[in-house]
Amino acid sequence: MTPDLARLTPDTIVAFLGSIFDRRGGEEYLGEPVSMGEHMLQGATIAEQNGQPEEIIVGALLHDIGHFTSEFGTFSMDDTEDRFHEDAGAEVLERFFPAVITDCVRFHVAAKRYLCATRPDYVRRLSEASIHSLNLQGGPMRVDEVAEFEKNPHLAQIIAVRTLDDAGKRPGMQTPDFWHFAPMVQRMVDRHCGAVYG
Length: 198
Ligand SMILES: [Fe+2]
What we know:
- The protein is mainly alpha-helical.
- It has helices at residues 13-24, 36-49, 54-62, 85-93, 99-106, 108-118, 128-136, 143-149, 155-167, 178-197.
- Helix 3 (54-62) crosses helix 5 (99-106) and helix 3 packs across helix 9 (155-167).
- The model has no long low-confidence stretch (mean pLDDT 89).
- Residues 39, 63-64, 165 line the site of fe (ii) ion.
């Protein structure tokens, strides 16, 4: 089932996202000991347990949603594993969520490259699969890329979500399901869409 994305509204986007978690959350997260759904729910749960703001919780919850590209009608047979899932995710979310959320989604891979370049101890925290994909993603940022990346007004939030991305790979960790977070996600959509369209 591929919904017509153009028909998604502020009243249906959260149910759409939740249905992706419900139907496809169990899919494998390549090379990691958790499923895709567990991975995103773990990041959001860790953020909530640590009292982080809603934008960080929701950013972690949705950061890899672009892995489900077939849900967005953008899948092609030429796709490879690293087909810029971060861009696909941000594109779907940007109609409904503030820029801080879409930046956390769009730049979570770049943040890994940034942290590898700027924090020497960071690489040691990465999983094996994440180190492998780092090489496909361009390796650590160059100095000029670092300077450009630091201009992003949401740098702190992007790095916070990246940290949760790296943390959310714990086999067996118990988390609530998507619907626990749904009211928070809806609040964020309503606030954003109310401000933009209201
Ligand atoms: Fe992730």
